[in-house]
Specification:
Strand content: 5-15%
Order of helices and strands: EHHHHHHHE
Number of strands: 2
Distance between the termini: 15 Å
Number of domains: 1
Largest sheet: 2 strands, antiparallel
Number of helices: 7
Strand order of the largest sheet: 1-2
Radius of gyration: 16 Å
């Protein structure tokens, strides 16, 4: 990411205290947070939300973070169709389905998705999973609103 810069094309997010609140959420549930959930699984979920919400900033950041976590490139590359792949473990599949259902927000049958995730994770793990998805939704919407547009560094 050293050769990419992001320009705020719509507004400066520091004009309100919201950006600091979002940073506090990221500290608690972002890619550097200490969580009960497996770090690689949490990173796959973050990247999946970025894909679902078409956030350029988050896609670039979380693809690189997934690489830095040592996640297999095939898993990163195939994440957009995870349900069509045998590359993902049962826990990863449950977490990604939960992620997609919560991110979508209007899927019927959410209880069944929750129950499948609950079979893989503790109650705290489910709470962390939900918090990761919610946190990422805050960031993807913030970056969209502020117009965080990637460009290659000049010179």
């Amino acid at each position: 990411m050293a050769d990419i810069v992001f320009e705020n094309t719509r507004f400066n997010p520091d004009l309100t205290p919201f950006h600091e609140l979002a940073k506090a959420m990221a500290k608690a549930f972002g890619y550097t947070a200490e969580l009960e959930l497996d770090a690689e699984l949490a990173q796959l979920v973050r990247l999946r939300v970025a894909q679902n919400n078409n956030c350029s900033y988050c896609l670039i950041l979380h693809t690189q973070a997934a690489r830095d976590h040592g996640i297999a490139l095939a898993k990163i590359d195939g994440l957009g169709s995870w349900w069509e792949s045998n590359l993902y473990s049962g826990a990863e599949r449950a977490a990604l389905d939960y992620c997609d259902a919560l991110n979508e927000g209007s899927r019927t049958g959410f209880q069944a998705v929750h129950d499948a995730a609950r079979a893989q994770f503790s109650e705290r793990g489910i709470a962390e999973l939900a918090a990761i998805v919610i946190n990422m939704n805050v960031w993807t919407r913030l970056k969209l609103a502020q117009g965080a547009t990637p460009s290659f560094k000049q010179g």
